[in-house]
Design a protein that fits this description.
Elements: E1 3-6, H1 7-12, H2 14-22, E2 27-31, E3 34-39, H3 42-55, H4 58-68, H5 77-86
Parallel strand pairs: 1-2
Antiparallel strand pairs: 2-3
Length: 97
């Protein structure tokens, strides 16, 4: 849930509003009863940017769509470690006898 302040209130209470945002509470700033800005923590903004980057990535979106359609198989991360242990890289396998 976000707190709402007018521009004038936000100007006079900025240090406290920054602390609220840092604590994870979005701060909405309004002018003439219209929201004109939000104050968010760095962490929250980084999550938003990361989400936008994923949504803009065609390969990621293809994988998400396939997952939603039930066309993927999810495995625990530990299974990936087990699988890596089974794969042994071969150097110059043509020359090994």
């Amino acid at each position: 849930m976000s707190s709402t302040y007018t521009v004038t209130q936000a100007q006079s209470h900025l240090p406290g509003l920054i602390r609220k945002a840092e604590a994870g509470e979005p701060v909405r700033i309004r002018r003439h009863n219209e929201t004109v800005a939000y104050l968010l923590s760095r962490e929250r903004m980084e999550v938003i940017v990361e989400t936008m980057e994923i949504l803009a990535n065609p390969t990621a979106m293809k994988a998400i769509t396939a997952n939603r359609a039930g066309k993927t198989k999810l495995v625990p991360l530990a299974a990936l470690d087990d699988e890596r242990d089974l794969i042994v890289p071969h150097r110059n396998s043509r020359h090994q006898h």
